[in-house]
Specification:
mainly alpha; DNA-binding; about 150 residues; 6 helices; homodimer; about 55% helix
Chain lengths: ~150, ~150
Amino acid sequence: MARASRFPTDVPIGVLAGQSGVKIETIRWYEKIGVMPKPPRSAGGYRLYSAEHLKRLTFIRRGRELGFSLDELRELIRLVDGHAFTCAQVKALMLEHVADIRRKIADLQRLARVMKDISSRCAGNDVPECPIIDALFAQQPLSPTIKHLGP
Amino acid sequence: MARASRFPTDVPIGVLAGQSGVKIETIRWYEKIGVMPKPPRSAGGYRLYSAEHLKRLTFIRRGRELGFSLDELRELIRLVDGHAFTCAQVKALMLEHVADIRRKIADLQRLARVMKDISSRCAGNDVPECPIIDALFAQQPLSPTIKHLGP
DNA sequence: CTTGGACCCTATAGTCACTACAGACTCAAG
DNA sequence: CTTGAGTCTGTAGTGACTATAGGGTCCAAG
C-alpha cells in the first residue's frame, strides 16, 4: 500500500457531494469561479478532496442557505483564510443581512396584501369578466412600487 | 398625409417606455421572447406603438410587480386574448401565487430568526474568533433546510 | 487479463429576466 | 444641411447554477 494517506479522506467528487449535500456540478462550478480551491488530482485526472475541502464547502453551503451571495462569501472566506477578521466585522455583515431579509419580508407582505385585496374583489365564478384582469390592465398603480425583490 | 392615424398614439419606443415605466431594452426583450407583439415600423425601421401596446405592456408590468413569471403571464395573456378565461380560473392562479409568497415569507422569517440567533452568540468585539464563523463551519445543520428560496 | 459499469472529465449551452454595450442608422428642429 | 437626440441590430454579461454530449478512468468480478 503505497498511498497510506495520513487523512483517510482523499475522496473523489461524488463522495464529497454526498458528504456536503452540494451537487457535483455545483462543486465544479465553485472551483471554476474560484470560491473552492483547485484540489489535487489522481493520475487519471480525478479530483481528490480532503477534510479541508469539506469544511470549506460546508462553509459555503451554510452561507448560501443564509442568503449570502457568492461574492459576499468570497469576502468572508478571504477574511477567514487570512485570519484577518474580527468578530465585530463578521457580526456587522451578519446584521446587515438580517436587515436585508427583513426588507424583503416587508415587501413580500405588501405584495401578498395587494394580491389578496385584488382577489377579494373577484367572485370567482364562471363569467369571463374579472376584476383581477381589470386591475392588471388599469393605468393607475396597484400599490407603491415594490423594490428589493431582485434575487 | 397618407398616414392619418385614427389613434394619435403612434409613438416610438422611448415614449412607450416613459408611459409604461418599462425600459426600452426590456420592451425590445419582451418582443423578442414573444410576450409583446411585433409592432409596425416606420419607413426607417422605428417601432411604432399604439394604445393597445401600452395596455398590454401595462398588464405585463403589473403582473411582474405581483411576482408572476413571464411564462405565467404568457399563459394569462393567452387566456385574456382568446377571451377563453373565467373569473374562477384567474382567481385560482392569483391565490396560488399568494400561497407561494406566504411560503417565501415564512422561509425568510425562519432565516432571519436563525441569523439573529447566531449573531446573538457573538460579542462583536475585536478578537479574531467568532461564534458566527464557527457556526458556518460546523457540520451539524443550523436549521431545518430552507426551500422555496430560489428567485 | 479483460470486461462491464459506475464513476469522473471537459466544454458547451441553457435557465430567468433582464442590462449594457458598440457601431450604425433615422428623425425632427433649427 | 447640420446637429444631436433618439433608435436600430447584435452580442455579451449578470448570478447561481443545471443539463447535456462525448469522451476517459477506476476497480472488482470473472
